[in-house]
Amino acid sequence: MNTKKLIEEGKTALGIEFGSTRIKAVLVDYSGKVLAVGIHDWENSFINNIWTYSMDEIHAGTRSCYTSLRKDVEEKYGVTPKTYGAIGVSAMMHGYIALDENGEQLAPFQTWRNTNTQQAADELTELFDFNIPLRWSSAHLYQRILDGEEHVKNIDTVSTLAAYIHLRLTGKHVIGIGDAAGMFPIDSVTLDYDQSMVDKFDKLIEKYNFGWKLRDVFPKVMVAGEEAGTLTKEGAEFLDESGNLEPGVKLCPPEGDAGTGMVATNSVAPRTGNVSAGTSTFAMLVLEKSLSKLYREIDMVTTPSGFPVAMSHANNGTSDLNAWVGIFGEFASLFGIKADAGELFEKLYTNSLNGDADCGGLLAYGYYSGENITMINEGRLAFLRTANSKFNLANLMRVNLYTSLGAVKLGMDILMKDEGCKIERLMGHGGFFKTKGVGQRYLAASVNAPVTVMDTASEGGAWGIALLAAFLADRKTDEKLEDYIEERVFKTMSGETINPDPKDVEGYEIFTERYKKGLSIEKAAINAMDWD
Questions:
Q1: H helices of 285-339, where?
Q2: Fewer CB within 10 Å, N side or C side of the chain?
Q3: How far apart, in whole angstroms, are the C-alpha atoms of residue 217 and residue 193?
Q4: Torsion of the alpha carbons at 323, 327, 329 and 332, rounded to the nearest 10
Q5: Terminal-to-terminal C-alpha distance of the chain
Q6: Residues 346, 349, 351, 356: what is their CA dihedral angle, to the nearest 10 degrees?
Q7: Is 458 in contact with 428 (CB distance < 8 Å)?
């Protein structure tokens, strides 16, 4: 059947992912082939010491992204999509969206980037004997309680961004297990919130007499392959401003960007892993067994099917790297050269390969916000060098590429060196890997292991959630997600594997020691750089 016919008959799957700087929609057939793409660029705001997006921005961005995809379909195939086999929504994990019984927002949306939950995270970690990172929704909720915020007593639902959009589309307050694992600890046997910890949380807040318990306000947990509701008339009107989209489309459980990253890199089975590198950077290893002890640097989450996953999650990634590239774009414009953004990234990334393996003694921290792994609760941007450092363009770009993985590497060292976690396949995806052979080479050096990047790597999590929607729409009886991804999607996909270069590995280790030593300077900068 030709593509136009597939679209007309709704035998396609649509995925929409809300990233930190871009909302992206991807339309695929049931084998995962990308048919059309839509985008809407946006950026978070720092308002009253909170990293946030307004509801108006979220709603307008959703519609703009879908309109972009619809127009791409119309231009390529001469047909307007009216229905799909299934739709999936994913987004940056964690955070806090609180609504009352009328669906009205009670407090500003707090994204994963906020680190204003230290007391709550510490108390819950001690209570559960389980690491609760600062960005988790349970930490946000409990911090709002500790701070005595008036809105808490009126809460009807607490959601992540993906669960909120799904609620708008279907009227169902549910969540995929991978995204749920960034709200509250998950029991991988029951595939639900850990009941013993739920009981402890409910007991902890009992004295406040709110009239609700955790399960009353948190979304119901679902796993990949389950139907999580259908598109309502109101949901169709919310998504498609042209009015062509018909209600009744099935939706898969809404997922977080960690889960969709696993799917997009075929990293959903034990002893596989992936690194997603963008505005934030995280590395995930699907475990065969539990870790030997609690680490505050490591998140314990799950795949979209519920397998336990150890995650090294850095709040900061390529934002400062992107800013440096922008500076060189401005420089080019002074000479009347209008540099294409994609070409600018490619040239500068590729030139970094001419730099020294240890970045010539340079050091940088792209900390726009606090960093959980290094226990720094506020961010400052820093570039450091000595009189003896080899300061040139190649090393400048190389150090900013290295430091984009710097915090994540510290977590990966815990997993691979201290815990001895085994990995058979490590995949990279996200914009960091778009320039062939650069980011991939540096990741291989940082973990001292082969890294594979598929040709679909730049499609990222939006492609991953589209695959989860396709899995729902075209699932065979009792088919497992890992089998669908391996046999029906990746079997015919092409990619490239790079082995670590021993000199790069040695250089990265030298850089990492410098990175750790320099953290005292980064901490001092928090007090020194207070002029904002």
A1: 319-334
A2: C
A3: 13
A4: -170
A5: 59
A6: -170
A7: no
Q: Give DSSP secondary structure letters for 99-145.
A: E-TTS-B-SPPB-TT----HHHHHHHHHHHTS---TTSHHHHHHHHH
User: What CA–CA distance (Å, rounded) separates 433 from 527?
Assistant: 35
Letter string b/e over residues 176-213, b meaning 16 or more CB atoms within 10 A of that residue's CB: bbbbbbbbbbbbbeeebbbeebbeebeeebeeeeeebe
The pair of structure tokens assigned to 278 is 């963008």
Tokens encoding 202: 């409910």
Check pLDDT > 90 for residue 526: no
Partners of residue 174 on adjacent β-strands = 220
Asked if residue 464 lies in contact with residue 15, where contact means CB atoms within 8 angstroms, the answer is: yes
User: Per the structure block, which two tokens stand in for 180?
Assistant: 């749920």
Residue 479 CB contacts under 8 Å (≥ 6 apart), including other chains = 225, 471
Report CA-CA distances (Å) from 91 to 6, 388, 464.
27, 44, 11
Q: Which of 159, 168, 218 is nearest to 193 (CA)?
A: 218
Measured CA angle at 116 (ends 176, 19), to 5 deg: 40
Of how many residues is the chain composed?
A: 532
Q: Is 334 helix (H, G, I), strand (E, B) or coil?
A: helix
The structure tokens listed for 86 are: 């299934």
Tell me which residue has tokens 């990222």.
Answer: 460
Q: Which two tokens stand for residue 230?
A: 């259908």
Q: Tell me the backbone φ, ψ of residue 304, rounded to 5 degrees.
A: -65, -10
Element (H, E) at 47: strand 45-47
DSSP code of residue 458: G
Residue 464 carries which DSSP code? H
pLDDT (tens digit per residue) in 180-195 = 999 999 998 999 999 9
| Residue 355, phi then psi, degrees to nearest 5 | -80, 175
* Helix, strand, coil abundance in the chain, percent, nearest 5: 45, 20, 40
Q: What is the pLDDT of residue 42?
A: 96
**Strand 13-18 to 22-28 pairing:** antiparallel
pLDDT digits (tens, 9 = 90+) for 77-126: 999 999 999 999 999 999 999 999 999 999 999 999 898 999 999 999 99
